[in-house]
Amino acid sequence: MSTQLVEANTPLFHLDECRRFIVDCMLAVGTPRPNAEALANILIEADYRGHYSHGMNRIEMYLSEAQNGICKVDASPEILKETPATAWVEGHGGLGVVVGTFGMDLAIEKAKAVGVGLVVCKGSNHYGIAGMYALQAMKKGLLGLSFTNTSPVVAPTRTKHAALGTNPLSLAAPGLNGDSFVLDMATSAVAMGKIEMKNRTNSAIPSQWLDPDTGALHPLGGDESNSSYKGYGLVVLVEILCGILSGGAYGPNIRVLGNFERMADLGHCFIAVDPKCFAPGFEERLSDLMESLRQMPPNDPDKPVLVAGDSERLHMKAVDEAGGIRYIQDQLDTCEKVAQDLNIRPLQPLAK
Amino acid sequence: MSTQLVEANTPLFHLDECRRFIVDCMLAVGTPRPNAEALANILIEADYRGHYSHGMNRIEMYLSEAQNGICKVDASPEILKETPATAWVEGHGGLGVVVGTFGMDLAIEKAKAVGVGLVVCKGSNHYGIAGMYALQAMKKGLLGLSFTNTSPVVAPTRTKHAALGTNPLSLAAPGLNGDSFVLDMATSAVAMGKIEMKNRTNSAIPSQWLDPDTGALHPLGGDESNSSYKGYGLVVLVEILCGILSGGAYGPNIRVLGNFERMADLGHCFIAVDPKCFAPGFEERLSDLMESLRQMPPNDPDKPVLVAGDSERLHMKAVDEAGGIRYIQDQLDTCEKVAQDLNIRPLQPLAK
């Protein structure tokens, strides 16, 4: 995923205006306002954190799925089975963010009651950045873990054919004074967004990223000599927690990317853990570990050692200092076209 | 970890005899019999599965730690805090296998009651292969997850200095008819054992594995251009679930490898999940996914696509067919010396 501020020669947009635009788009295709707002929040959070591939970039995909009826924008999730610590949820084809937020809310409630909550959802759609749900738990003082399966674009080790998704995982955990550890990663060598960026800029794609014949992504590691079977194992681990446990679509059964002819039926897994059930002082220890890592001598003085979440913090700081966000012209053209098609107010730049 | 059957020109040893030898060794240094048997079981299970680095290879380490009193071979773990779904356990410096088995037993009991059990332990020692505990849950029809921290030998991305362990993670999940998915991996590019094997055979160590200046291992991925920050993130994820959550030693605070002057105070995390709390048919779906992966067209006809656990199954089959296991001569010399030092019956080969 991208963690660079887009430094295009384009206008600045206030984050509130970006959210307004997405809400208006989704209202225009029949989305109830709370669901439209939830989607706007997660897409603009992705852009704010520097994960442009998972933000405004996806607006046409969400609109197409809503218009096709492939995504039920007014569906509400339902609990199918429940214990004090677990729940199995049917998403009824609703927006991924609606299903995901519901699922993690349940996990949080259970973790508050018995220390850990594990919720598995099926019948869902693309849920945006995995980190959003992990952060949802972290904001309540918990550890949050979030997993989802995706359309098959990753080739298992030893074959060049895609059979599994980029299956991301995320862990967010609170440190002291607002510091935090936020890992949000595809278990493939890279996320699809990085490939798109290389293509957009006509840059060469490293051979460790994908198979040149089929375009299938490699798992984390790249090839077998570099332990790609571990990345492949992690891709399947996420699939087991999502598609296999939930009874939704899984692996090669998930519809291919860009196919809007059938429901995605994606699966997610959410785990919330209350650190108060274990050793006192969790936040102090985590901050101590993160500080000791950040202070290690870097190989290149211009590239300090980071912990997961630091790149995003740097990007958010840059957006805050600029007073808004920039998109590349191609994205702005898309927004313009969408506004015309839906007859809504175009995205308004900040006054200079 | 090694998954090759050792094809040395050495005698065969029955697995029972290997276990007998380890039990006698540990009894000779004051270990209660049940604890000695638990250690023998896990070490020989490692060898049986082809993870030679974590088996008989470690006998001297366990003996030294027992003789120094750094590992309390007669200690019993204690529950410090508990909910219906979680427990925090003090290992009192006992054998890792004793603490780990206790921890996963508790997680299993809780998963049977409320669908998920999450147990975190501190005050422990090296617990052998992470997969053993995941398998412990799987044998009860559950999904098992197992994590541990280790002595710092891995360099975070952007520095060449070690600060974190190889922090393995394991997931075991049951399929149909005894089939299973068993991922058991260090989150570093490779486990320490692979480095030792390259050294033993005077082979070149790939540059993606470790830093040539310091010898610190790289995280999974290798270098930053190949997404090593994801491997680094996973190493820290495991550390958060183990050292940070448990209040034991963590990261750079853990004693360096081979230092027997202070307690290891390692942390482990165990999660058991009952698939019956979610969609019916878990085992059918997992077997279907595994079969579809195994049947994919391989790039090299001699190297079929595998799923995690297949290498170990092939190794166990080879051991079963041979009627026993072989060790390299260096290992047999060690066993001979240990038998003399402790005045116990030497390891007896099978009659030819």
CATH class term of the largest domain in chain A: Alpha Beta
Proportion of beta-strand residues of chain A: 5-15%
Give the SSE string of chain A: HHHEEHEHEEEHHEHHH
- Count of spatially separate domains of chain A: 2
Helical run tally of chain A = 10
Considering residues with a beta carbon less than 8 A from a beta carbon on another chain, report the largest interface and each chain's count.
A-B, 81 and 81 residues
Instruction: Give the N-to-C terminal Cα separation of chain A.
Output: 30 Å
- Mind telling me which CATH architecture of the largest domain in chain A this is? 2-Layer Sandwich
What can be said about the biggest beta sheet of chain A?
7 strands, mixed
Provide the helix percentage of chain A: 25-40%
Low-confidence stretches of chain A: none
CATH topology grouping of the largest domain in chain A: Ribosomal Protein S8, Chain: A, domain 1
Report Rg of chain A.
20 Å
